[in-house]
Amino acid sequence: MDHNRDLRRRRASKANSVFKRIKVHSDRPRLCVYRSNRFIYAQVVDDAKGHTVAAASSLEKELQAPSEGLAGKVGVAARVGLAVAERAKKAGIEKVVFDRRHYRYHGRIKALADGARKGGLSF
């Protein structure tokens, strides 16, 4: 039990430290990422208005095929990043702040960010 409680505390602490740096850029919407063991979700949130502008997840059928050159979940994450970037561009958003929460910037999180950059978003 203590291990799980400590793990939650460390994750919350890391997420808060990342979020503190994001608040500096309050004029830009956030590109939030949630990663589970099986799926990955991304959404662009406008905190000033309090609503989601664009979203994409690996639950969508058209995004479940891996990306070119990348296999497995990393390829799917790259396609999710590309899709959320296209949807944000349709909504008129080009600059965002990347909110990775407590996740390290490698693997699927990095692939999603690279896909979003490839789609036209700038962080």
Summarize the structure.
By secondary structure, the protein is an alpha+beta fold. It is built from 3 helices and 4 strands, in the order H-E-E-E-H-E-H. It has one domain: Nucleotidyltransferase, domain 5, CATH 3.30.420.
Structural overview:
The chain is α+β, with helices and mostly antiparallel strands. The protein has one domain: Nucleotidyltransferase, domain 5, CATH 3.30.420. Helix content is 41%, strand content 19%. It contains three helices and four strands; from the N terminus they run H-E-E-E-H-E-H. The model has no long low-confidence stretch (mean pLDDT 89).
Tags for this entry?
123 residues, alpha+beta, Nucleotidyltransferase, domain 5, 4-stranded mixed beta sheet, 3 helices, 4 strands, 41% helix, globular
Protein topology:
Elements: H1 2-22, E1 30-35, E2 40-46, E3 51-57, H2 72-90, E4 97-99, H3 108-118
Parallel strand pairs: 1-4
Antiparallel strand pairs: 1-2, 2-3
Helix pairs in contact: 2-3
Biggest sheet statistics: 4 strands, mixed
Arithmetic mean pLDDT:
89
The count of DSSP E runs of length 2 or more, i.e. the number of strands, is 4
Taken in chain order, the helices and strands follow as HEEEHEH
Which range best describes the helical content: under 10%, 10-25%, 25-40%, 40-55%, 55-70% or over 70%?
Answer: 40-55%
Q: Structural class per helix/strand content?
A: alpha+beta
Q: How many independent structural domains? A: 1
Strand order in the largest sheet? 3-2-1-4
Q: What's the CATH architecture name?
A: 2-Layer Sandwich
CATH level 1 name: Alpha Beta
Radius of gyration based on Cα positions: 15 Å
Q: How many H/I helical runs?
A: 3
CA-CA gap between termini? 38 Å
CATH overall fold name: Nucleotidyltransferase, domain 5
Could you say which overall geometry the principal axes of the C-alpha atoms support? globular
Instruction: Classify the beta-strand content into a percent band.
Output: 15-25%
Low-confidence stretches: none
